[in-house]
């Protein structure tokens, strides 16, 4: 069932006038919530939650029960698609994702099941989406997502979230053909995966390209952006809104301003006003409060929120968010404080 066109989040995405700035928070269902920790312990860990549609649905709804957020996001991870290739994913406490295999050579690639991808093995995600569409308030949009092929490849080539990226950059320089083969494969899987999420009922699609900003301009176009365009062009429903998130947004804005997307998600290293000036009303912007502001007192938080709204300085096309995911050290009361502050001051910048 499609959502009412009056929904604030969807109006902001479409750059239509809004009376208040909508907000959701990256990683809004996560370790800063005690009810998340409790359910995760019961399920035996993060993967146990993700693979159980009833629990994944409950976890997705937890932050919406606590706070007035304007959207839900499916509880899963960008890395689950590795399992389609027969690479086992685990999450180690305080260490992050780890794979049981890496792809660093033609031989590694040939040993994988690359002839026939079957996204049916991600059925638990599609079941979670269908459950959520039943459980969610019918006015509340649901975001589905994938990782960009480049960003997912950084994890599959490195094997974990080592932030050094030595192996993938070595491959890029010494064997770009192999890297393109891997990216092509991840693109094909992601297209099938996102299309099935759309068929299952998501209202908005998001692509996380967290590590796209590590590439220089030419390499970014060749190894990340070309695949994003292919995904965009292969969506079964071309009217579904698309949000594209990349860190170091400011560095790439001269390229990003030409993208065919609905929303650009920006990180906190960039001033939102500068980005807004470059893109005009071409697409909406999402972001970009520094997560550390959630540790400040109310008056400092108010100043920081006001700074962003003032820099953005336009009555439409802004979706409030952090510049990165919320971290486990944040007190949930500070999230409520942020949402209240935004509801209080944003109408002044929007339509009367
Ligand atoms: O935003 C949401 O609430 C939706 C669910 C979601 C998760 N991960 C859940 C998660 C989404 C959209 C992601 C995206 C994701 N996953 C990205 C891109 C965005 C970003 O954060 O830059 C990346 C790079 C990953 C890979 C990943 N997943 C890492 C590196 C880690 C470990 C480090 C960390 O940030 O926790 C994860 C774990 C993860 N994904 C958790 C959650 C709630 C924490 C799991 C736990 O309870 O231990």
Care to describe what's here?
Strand 7, helix 12 (272-279) and strand 8 (284-289) form a beta-alpha-beta unit. The protein has a 7-stranded parallel β-sheet with strand order 1-4-5-6-7-8-9. It has a two-stranded antiparallel sheet with strand order 2-3. Helix content is 44%, strand content 12%. The protein has helices at 8-13, 34-43, 46-50, 53-66, 106-110, 123-135, 149-158, 166-174, 176-200, 217-233, 253-256, 272-279, 298-312, 332-345; strands spanning 72-73, 89-92, 96-99, 142-147, 204-209, 242-246, 263-266, 284-289, 318-322. It is of the alpha/beta class and 352 residues long. The mean pLDDT is 95.
Overall shape: globular
Number of strands: 9
Strand order of the largest sheet: 1-4-5-6-7-8-9
> Over the alpha carbons, how many angstroms does the gyration radius reach?
20 Å
Q: Quick one: biggest sheet?
A: 7 strands, parallel
Number of helices, counting only DSSP H or I runs of 4 residues or more = 14
Provide the succession of SSEs.
Answer: HHHHEEEHHEHHHEHEHEHEHEH
Ends distance: 30 Å
Computed structural class: alpha/beta
Helix content: 40-55%
* Overall pLDDT score: 95
Please indicate the percent range of residues in DSSP E strands (runs of 2 or more): 5-15%
Name the hetero compounds present.
Answer: coproporphyrinogen III
Catalogue the unreliable spans.
Answer: none
Multimeric organization: single chain
